[in-house]
Amino acid sequence: MASDETSLPPIAILGAGSMGGAILQGLVRSGLAGEGVTATNRTGAKAAQLAELEGVTTVALEQRPTANAEAAASASIILVGVKPAMVPDLLREIAPHLAPGAIVVSLAAGVTIETFESILGSDVAVLRAMPNTPALVGKAVTGLAAGTQASETDVALVRRLFETVGSVVELPESQIDALSTISGSGPAYVFLLIEALTEAALGKGFSEPEARIMAEQTFIGAAALLEASGEEPAELRRRVTSPKGTTERAVAVLQAAHLDGVFAEATDAALARARELAAGA
């Protein structure tokens, strides 16, 4: 499906909750949603929260039960953001109403492309996307996997959409669960490390506001430096770690604790659980 370089075609977000809502706000900030976005939610209260976004039509299912089908019919790209258990019924509802050439994108964890294609039909382009929560601030990592009918043009178009909320990694669907253990769960790992460093600061006599500033802003500043410098993390670490200095002693303790092995074990555990969930466990 063709698109010009300045705007995206009409978009529908079916289930504009936390993640769908974050993507919606990224689209609005980008100015690329020039042909409009329709967002659906179950309740009027949730729909009202999005009502003031420029170029967005927000509809509550409790007031207009046919809103999902109508939104899908009017869109070229349809993002499915409802809970995974609700996906099959939603797909059956919208399938008869999709416009020729429409692209359907899954945001639902654990629901395969095969499930989408089996319900929507073999002629519908389907992609599976897995953004993470920093989409809320335009710093997401989104994994993007193409279905059997998605063309290179389709993929490029959907990639542009998700680049409004951060970076995109294209990969085969078989790697989506593995990606979820790194970028999907990754913010929780970072927050856990910040919690631990904050506790260490408290233990050294700092007040809670002081401890939070030191721990949180150190992570924020280090990430900003990494992004701005373009250097490898290992090189930046070496620059901070003076020979025979205090940082070298601290890093030695962390390395002795086999931090790399801990992260490998943690992400392996997350991957095992993702596979259990995909199998319905």
Fraction in beta strands: 5-15%
Low-confidence stretches: none
Helix content: 40-55%
Largest sheet: 8 strands, mixed
Overall tally of domains: 2
Protein name: Pyrroline-5-carboxylate reductase
Function: Catalyzes the reduction of 1-pyrroline-5-carboxylate (PCA) to L-proline.
Pathway: Amino-acid biosynthesis; L-proline biosynthesis; L-proline from L-glutamate 5-semialdehyde: step 1/1
Family: Belongs to the pyrroline-5-carboxylate reductase family.
Describe this structure in words.
The chain is α/β, with parallel strands linked by helices. It folds into two domains: 11-176, 3-Layer(aba) Sandwich (Rossmann fold), CATH 3.40.50.720; 186-278, ProC C-terminal domain-like (ProC C-terminal domain-like fold), CATH 1.10.3730. Helices cover 50% and strands 14% of the residues. α2 links the parallel β2 and β3. The longest helix is centred in the last third of the chain and has 22 residues, at 208-229. The relative contact order is 0.09. Pfam families: F420_oxidored, P5CR_dimer.
Strand and helix map with partners:
Elements: E1 11-14, H1 18-30, E2 37-41, H2 44-48, E3 56-60, H3 67-73, E4 77-80, H4 87-94, E5 103-106, H5 113-120, E6 125-130, E7 140-146, H6 152-162, E8 166-170, H7 176-184, H8 186-203, H9 208-229, H10 233-240, H11 246-256, H12 259-278
Parallel strand pairs: 1-2, 1-4, 2-3, 4-5, 5-6, 7-8
Antiparallel strand pairs: 6-7
Helix pairs in contact: 4-5, 7-12, 8-9
